[in-house]
Amino acid sequence: MIRYGQSTAAYVPVVDLDCDNDKVDEHPQHLVNDARRSKILHLSRALCVAVLCIVLGFGGSIFVKQKVNSKSLASTACTNPVIRQEWRDLSDAEKRDYIEAVQCLRDSPSRLALNQTLYDDFPYVHSRNGEASHDTAAFLPWHRYFIHVYEKALRDQCNYSGHLTYWDWSLDWKDVTHAPVWDTILGFGGDGNDKDLESVHGHCVTDGPFARLQVLFVEKFSYPHCLSRSFAKGENLTRFSAALEPTALDELLGTPDYATFNLGVEDGPHLSIPRSIHGDFSTFTAPADPVFFLHHTQLDRLWWKWQQVDVKARLEDYSGKAAYTSSSDASLEDPLPLGDLAPDVRVEDMMNTESELFCYRY
């Protein structure tokens, strides 16, 4: 059995928000306070997703009703896959190049024909299309495609010559708030400054290359504000980090079937980081925080490692709920929509990282 150390929930709604896509709350001041966890949280999420699907015409199942007619994109294997690297394994020059490419997205026009930048398109799409992948079988493949499109934007729009990098938080599980990704020079800045402006579930980040970065949305609301963080401390940090411990990840990698593994990843390490970092990271517009992509590349790495245990079987192992509001079983032919950010693909196109579409490994 492959072990975590070998080489080879949180994006949850932290506030109750109206799920009307067209409604803009002009004064959502309640967003700067920690919301109370209510017993109707999951019911609210299900209702919100259901209404969204009806509005968009998907009849209640965004991942079931649409079918992609194109030939599978994963039918051809690549010959020289890239090896994605951990952030601390990059040279100083490689870290600077990556940070500069991310910043470049702020100067690139929106693909969504909106009055925003390409940088803003990613949290926008995640809060609208990506939300429906949570608590479903599509969670891992949807995000595999999402971060791939992000990498492609860095390379195509910003002339970035590198590749996606991941943050292996298992190396920092005892205190993720002191990880090198928070460096103010060769990282993404640190905690929110509690002596500065209060922002969404925290305070403005005032150091590093993304200091005072303007974020346009919270969930589906237009609400311009500064990039916010509020690192957990003490017992809360210890509790949130438990799922990142190597022994916990070894246990997760020993899960025998995809459906159990997928939900284990989402409810475990996936939620640990947003709960530990808080701020914008704890909303469905979490991609506004650039560390989101290092976090999800690490989650993708976990999926890849799980697949390596039995490649022949697990490259086609896909099961679970097709949609949060549906009782239908998931299928490899289910679509993975990213709106106008990128063409729709099928789940089957996401299963093999060494396909011609992706061509990478860890």
Task: Provide a brief overview of the structure.
With 362 residues, the chain is of the alpha/beta class.
Radius of gyration: 19 Å
How many DSSP-defined strands? 11
Q: Are there runs of 5+ residues with pLDDT below 50, and where? A: 1-70
**Helix content estimate:** 25-40%
Distance between the termini: 17 Å
Largest sheet: 3 strands, antiparallel
What does this entry look like structurally?
The structure is a single chain. The chain has 362 residues and is an alpha/beta fold. Helices cover 32% and strands 8% of the residues. The protein has helices at residues 41-56, 92-104, 118-128, 139-158, 234-241, 246-253, 258-267, 269-277, 291-308, 311-314; strands at residues 82-83, 85-86, 165-166, 198-199, 202-204, 214-218, 221-226, 228-229, 335-336, 345-346, 360-361. A hairpin with an 8-residue loop joins strand 9 and strand 10 (345-346).
Give the key terms.
single chain, 362 residues, alpha/beta, 3-stranded antiparallel sheet, 10 helices, globular
Topology of this protein?
Layout: H1 41-56, E1 82-83, E2 85-86, H2 92-104, H3 118-128, H4 139-158, E3 165-166, E4 198-199, E5 202-204, E6 214-218, E7 221-226, E8 228-229, H5 234-241, H6 246-253, H7 258-267, H8 269-277, H9 291-308, H10 311-314, E9 335-336, E10 345-346, E11 360-361
Parallel strand pairs: 1-11, 2-3
Antiparallel strand pairs: 4-5, 5-8, 6-7, 9-10
Helix pairs in contact: 2-4, 4-9, 5-8, 7-8
